[in-house]
User: Fold DUF488 domain-containing protein from Mesorhizobium erdmanii.
Amino acid sequence: MAFDLMVKRIYEQPAADDGQRILVDRIWPRGISKQDAALTLWLKEIAPSDDLRKWFGHVPARWAEFQERYGAELDGNGEAVAQLRALLGKGRVTLLYGAHNEAHNNAVALAGYLRGQ
Assistant:
């Protein structure tokens, strides 16, 4: 199934072509108001577990293993994945995250998981 999926840091300005803006972090990002976030949904249930998030710590050397562990968590989180897939069926979705590392974060891993299924 083809779908329109983007990944963006929540601190970037919302854009008209973002479509549905979904925050996929478990913790609300510092320094941004709910109004400025312009969210469609905060889907914290799809974020990595606290234990996995803390273990990863955005350390690039742990990226491959983080993706595997997070994928296993997502495999067991059918309800949240189905909710996100339903939104993808309605048009463009932008996954939003708060991390500084733009290449190694849960939103990038989640997008890869969705594209790989």
